[in-house]
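PROTOCOL LOG
Step 1. Enter all chains and additional molecules of the complex.
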Amino acid sequence: MKFREFMTTRIESIDCDKSVYDAIEKMVDRRIRSLVVVFPGNETENGVITARDIVFKALAKGIDLKKTKASHVASRPLYCVDKNTELDDMAKSMQEADVARIFVCDGEKIIGVVSLMDLMTATLVRRARGNDLS
Amino acid sequence: MIFLRKALSQGKRERQVVEDMKRHIRLLCTACGSFKSALEKDNRSLVHDVIDLEREGDSIRREIISKVHDGAFLPYIRPDLCKFVEVVDGVFDILEDTALFYLDAKLPEEMQDECVRVALLNQRICEMLLLTFEAMLKGEDLSEKTLAVRIYEKKVDDIKFDLFRDIRKTPINNFWEGKVLADFLSGLTTISDIIEDASDYVQIINVAMK
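Step 2. Run joint prediction.
Step 3. Record the structure below.
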């Protein structure tokens, strides 16, 4: 896999019925900026909740963080690319979808997540290695 | 920069030292690759390759130090060259210790993938050290190469944090089982730190020779 060394393989998630506050707590504890919001039994509905969603859709609007479900502010659908996607194509997909992170999938299964920062560092390393990122 | 090229290319002894230094780093890349394969395939017999490579690395280190003290290069640059070689040798030592801990450690299955990722990153950072060293010999700009080394090191640091959080939740049967596992993880995640130090020394040698 060409992107393996740069993507984050530890995917943290939260149940769709949990509150936005629970999501914030998990993100702070784990030092992460996004969580997959899981809809048990209906994975096609899965979304992602990011720091951006929390700031703009919850905190800025003054909604009750403990009473609002994470699924309410989550972004959907999840943007996924195949595990064999090239670096440049991944950047294009993120630009077209206007997202800061994209999930890497092996079939239906999420195996990693790539952020803009990961893309930037991968591109810099590719340059340093003479464009060889195999 | 012309001086750097002259300093690194003139004389048979200098050329031999430079070739030995490249061989030393290449051997380290091979050792890191063998260790990654051992972890990936959970093949503990491959660990013995790492131990053999460490011995070979030790012998190359002695050759380099001996040639440098025998008069290769101008005296003022010798301590930096020797220090660089010692730092690279330090990576071999930690890699060997980590490999030996792996033989005794009971690595939880859920930590296996992350450990393989760290081993892969260690191999990559080592390859980048070789590219940095070669770029220095050619008199090229090192900034992008050393940045790549730092990027890899940060990646390992991020995984390290998660691994040490996980290890605290891992049930252990006795003190030694826990200690060996902790020492294994500590060694695995320290390798990139030392390679980063070696990359800093390449930069120091580069500046010193200008």
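Step 4. Note key features.
Chain A touches chain B at residues 4-6, 8-10, 31, 121, 124-125, 127-130 (CB under 8 Å).
Residues 103 and 109 of chain A are 10 Å apart (CA to CA).
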